[in-house]
Amino acid sequence: MDALKQTKFDDKNLIPAIVQDFKTGDILMFAWMNQESLALTIEKQQAVYYSRSRKKLWFKGEQSGHTQLIKEIFTDCDNDVILLRVDQVGGIACHTGRKSCFFQQLDKNNWKTVANVLKNPKDIYE
Length: 126
Fold this sequence. Notes:
Blueprint lengths: L1 H5 L7 E8 L5 E8 H10 L3 E4 L4 E4 L8 E8 L6 E7 L15 E4 L2 E4 L7 H4 L2
């Protein structure tokens, strides 16, 4: 696959991936991908990431059902960052039960929560 050859992975064979809601433009999350997860994402048109802590592929939504269907894939000018534009199934991207993982905003010198929990994580990950 030519796109994989053109993509610049780091020395750990990883590339950062920014995930954006296709309809709203909201940034949903950030994750890491390796060559295998990017290839699977392209092939299946569904987001697959690489979990650095678990050291394995992470099929987004495999436990929660909150999958990410790929609408478009971009890379930046250096080919070392991926942007996935997705249809977020269930409207929840974050394991905290929020739409986005970016729900804390700097307020003076403290992080302030600015987005509500849409679904209790205990109900998501039973």
